[in-house]
Each structure stands twice: as C-alpha cells, then as structure tokens.
Amino acid sequence: xxxxxxxxxxxxESDVTPESVYLSRRRFMGGLAGLGLSAGAGxxxxxxxxAAASDYQDVPAGNPPGWLxxxxxxxxxxxxxxxxxxxxxxxxxxxxxxxxxFYEFGTGKGDPARNADALKTQPWSxxxxxxxxxxxxxxxxxLAKPSRLQERIYRLRCVEAWSMVIPWLGIPLGxxxxxxxxxxxxxxxxxxxxxxxxxMPGQDSSFALIDWPYTEGLRMDEAMHPLAILGLGMYGxxxxxxxxxxxxxVVPWKYGFKSIKSIVRISLVEEQPVNSWxxxxxxxxxxxxxxxxxVDHPRWSQATERRLPNSLFNPNIIDTRMFNGYAEEVASLxxxxxxxxxx
Length: 343
Ligand SMILES: Nc1nc2c(c(=O)[nH]1)N[C@H]1C(S)=C(S)[C@@H](COP(=O)(O)O)O[C@H]1N2
Ligand SMILES: [Mo]
What we know:
It is a single chain. By secondary structure, the protein is of the alpha+beta class. It has one domain: Sulfite Oxidase, Chain A, domain 2, CATH 3.90.420. It is 18% helix and 19% strand. It contains 11 helices and 12 strands. The radius of gyration is 19 Å and the shape is globular. The structure holds ligand MTE and molybdenum atom. The site of molybdenum atom has 6 residues, from loops.
C-alpha cells in the first residue's frame, strides 16, 4: 500500500518554516518539486536527499554511530502526509527534547532530558522472535541497513491532550517485519523496551507504576501500514536519548504511549499483547488507543489538545482530529469496529 498525499498543494513552505525552525530553502524546494509532481495521485514519492542536521536551526549537532552517518546523509523525503498549513508548524527541537514522557527516567516531563544521558545506546542489539522463520538477535545496524531512511513530519498527540509536530527519520516497520518472515500464526507484533535499572533510574524506583519492561503492541495490519515507522532520528540527526534512542516506534494516528522507545525486542505473536498502560488502568487506556476526539478519557476530554509550545497567554488549544488527522490513510483498518469499545 502506498501513502496518500492528502490534497494537491496541502504542503506549503509555511508548514515547515516557522520562525525558529526551518528547512534550508534550497533543499526544501527540492522536496516541494517532488510533492508537486505526485500530489493527489496517491503515490509514494521518491524524493531527493533532504534531511541533514544543518537543515534545522537551533538543533545541536548530534553524535551518530559511524554506520548511521551515511544513512543520515542519504535520507530521503520520500513521503509525507502533510500537516495543516496554519496549525502544524514544527515544534522547536528544544521543546521536543525537554518535554518528554519516558518513565524509565522518571515521571516528570523534564526527567528524561535530565537523566537519559546515562543510557548506553551503542552497541545495540534487538531480538526478533516468536512466529517468524527468520528471527534471532540482530545488531541495530544490520536491522536498519537494507532500508533507506525517510523523513516524515508527523503530529504526535499524547493521551494527556498535548501535542507536537516532529520531523522523524525512520524506516518502515513493515520492512523489518517482512524480512523476519512471519508465519501464518503471526497476528500481532509486541515490542519491549530495554530493562536496565542501573541506566534507567525510573526502573529502580519502588514507586514505579509500570511492570518493566515497557510493552506495546500493534495488530499485524497496523504494523504493516506504511505510516508506521521505526524512528532512528529526528530533526536531521540521530535520536536524542530522551526521545527513545537508538530506535523507537512512531505510529502517528495513535496516542503517544503506543510509540514505544528504546526497543530491544520485537515478537510476532498469535494473541493480542497487553500493553503497559492497559495493564495499569484498563478502563482508561486500551490496546488500540487510536486518537479519537469523540471518545473521552474517563477523567478528561479528548476533543481538544494543547499544541506545544504554548504559554499562559497563548494556550494554543486546537481541535483534535479523528485518527490525529490521518483518517484518510488509516480509517479502513477499523471498518466495522466499535471504536468506543475498542478504545
Ligand atoms: N519505553 C517507553 N516508551 C514510551 C514512553 C515511556 O514512558 N517509556 N512514553 C510514551 C508516551 S506517553 C509518549 S507521549 C511518547 C513521547 O515521546 P517523546 O518524548 O519523544 O515526545 O513516548 C511514548 N513511549
Ligand atoms: Mo503520552
């Protein structure tokens, strides 16, 4: 399945050029030309190299592992589901990296930025197991090698009713799953985050809500959807630790908690997995967790969201959209399902 570009002309320079963060005009025009050719045709775009840390202002230089450097340099503006021209400006890097949820490093929004330096991200290996013919333990480098990095500008909508717009660099999750050769019994994909209390102080705390490892899951067709990516970078560079280095899931039509960070295990399974937040409060957090303004959280409304950055004088509250604005691409996955029951 190919990614649909919403409407001709939907992506404008203003979408990706706020005052504080912008893509270099020259390179960006290359991306636009590619979009112009394919917009409305429902085609995946083959674009030009676009992403580089130098394309963004106020983004500190990264320190990627050697194998990731050429991938960053050759990243491709392959496909984008555009953001709305007025509403969706890129969130400044500083906000995206200092207002985080990553409970392994503490429950405060500033805790991950403060504590995640201790995370050792190289070397990093990932176990792929369960209902697959080609499983095993893989170096992240080998897992990522066959796929070209793509830049995707996605909205990220947390279940707590705040949101951001982040330019990710990632590879399709479906690529990695296909290479593992799932058997006919594989119905769901389960993901687990690293457990390492000596690096992750939040895992050590006796107050921890979560029964580690942090666990997430997707139905097979959700996992194979081209919008679902494994993120290896953001803002033209590798992922900062607090954002889930060295790689994390990004599923933009679901609440942020589905986008599990610092993954060490991917299991293809027959039964629907229980994700961490569902295990803690099954009445409040479901397995599907599709962004849905019509189904409120029991303790707050999901009809609107606070788009970061905001302030007391500019609360920046906007309407939440069905499937976070990606309904055209993903609604068919849920045809005939009662989304109030399967929240
Ligand atoms: N392992 C792990 N992954 C996680 C979380 C977490 O606490 N632990 N928090 C989730 C939540 S609630 C959100 S909103 C996003 C936040 O991603 P960001 O900090 O990169 O914006 O990460 C998700 N992934
Ligand atoms: Mo979240």
